[in-house]
Amino acid sequence: MENVILIGFMGAGKTTVGKLLAKELQMSFLDTDERIEVEQGRSIPEIFATDGEQCFRDLETELLKKMQEDTKNSVISVGGGLPVREENRELLRKLGTVIYLSASKETILSRVKNDGTRPMLNSDDLEARVEKLMHDRERLYKAAAHLDIRTDERSVARVLQIIRQELFKAQ
To answer: Which of 1, 31, 59, 140 has minimal CB crowding within 10 Å?
Structure first.
């Protein structure tokens, strides 16, 4: 099976679903943020603080280019902002089947409200920040994705079941 790439907003369930999906499909699991942290020897918040968002986005694009050559038979969870660049959306679609895990603003807020590790959410008004980012990104996620699967009020097991059904339909 080709790669399966999970995109979506922070807190949509990409990493949780991705790890379990990889195990079920007997594929490798890869998280682009984790890979960047390992390659850079520092955390995403540190990269943002010292070099800025543009540098981080450049690192994401470079990683996607490398993955075209060295990543096969994997479930890949990507950072929430990675699909914002048009070049990245094209690279994602070449890399495998792209699944947009979508969720409502309320669901996202409930999942990220106590997570201080997300530099894009540093704001005095978390709800307004999430709403703006979701508004700005939704059409870009849809443009990148082959499939759109809602995670609101669905168990991880149910989301996995839907993904498996959709993947096997597409074969």
So the answer is: 1
Secondary structure E strands in 32-143: 74-77, 96-102
143-163 confidence digits (pLDDT tens): 999 999 999 889 999 999 999
Q: What is this structure's pTM?
A: 0.90
Q: Which of 43, 38, 85, 40 is nearest to 65 (CA)?
A: 85
Alpha-carbon distance 103 to 10, whole Å? 10
How far apart (Å, rounded) are the C-alpha atoms in residues 75 and 72? 9
Contact 57, 85 (CB under 8 A): yes
Handedness of CA 124, 125, 127, 129 (dihedral sign): negative
Q: How far apart are CA 102 and CA 87, in angstroms?
A: 21
pLDDT for 83 equals 95
Distance separating alpha carbons of residues 135 and 127, to the nearest angstrom: 12
Q: Could you give the CA distance from residue 134 to residue 106 in angstroms, rounded to a whole number? A: 11
